[in-house]
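Now for my pick.
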Amino acid sequence: MARQLDANNACVISEFDKASGGRVIQTQVWSRVSDESNNQLDSHGTEPAWKIVAAHLTCPAPAVDRRVWRVVGTPPNPKAPGRISGGSSSGPAAAVACGQATIGLGADTAGSIRIPASYQGLWGIRTTHGRISSKGIHPLSESFDTVGWMTRDAQTLAFVAKAMMLERKSNTMIDGLEICPALDQCVEQDVREPFIAFRASIGNRNSGAHGDISTAGFTSGMLDELVSIFQTVRGYEAWQANGEWASQH
């Protein structure tokens, strides 16, 4: 970005990624090189050159940023200072949003990837249950726990997906698809429109890529009942996995 300060001075600001992580902001002040009589044109009648008279680099914070890596307290939200960072998995989200990491890994049981990603302006994905092995991850609720990640851009999100999901071909990942237009009324327009466009796109081409397409019999009135079932199962499984430790501490 460049902005002329006056007839003979301009400010140039650029941004680039640092190899060790984060982004560097470079600020430069350029001045027009004039002849001795301070004319804007040189002796040949042509536009003179410019030179850099001041420069500054704003580098990312060190690898261990105490704003993010701390024992207690809530991680910061760099996109909305003073507001919460999203709860569970907000630590990896804050590290990515602050430029301390390129990829933030986490688990999503009830929004633990999607909520901090949305609060901090990141791309986040909750993968299909069982799509990526959760072996070695301490469970919260095994019926709902999934592996996910967060990035600052869609391209990196896709790169991680290719690295994490090599074992299946894309044309065999989906053997059936259920859609539910009745739930459109539960979301705002900016969310509703992409779903309507997607349904229209799959209706206009061969459904083989998505397997059998059917309409789910959900209604908006069923959502509260489903949430209640989810909360009951999640609470039971969480106690089975962590109850003994919680009782001791």
Notes: Residues 109 and 145 are 4 Å apart (CA to CA). Helices lie at 90-97, 114-119, 154-164, 189-203, 223-248.
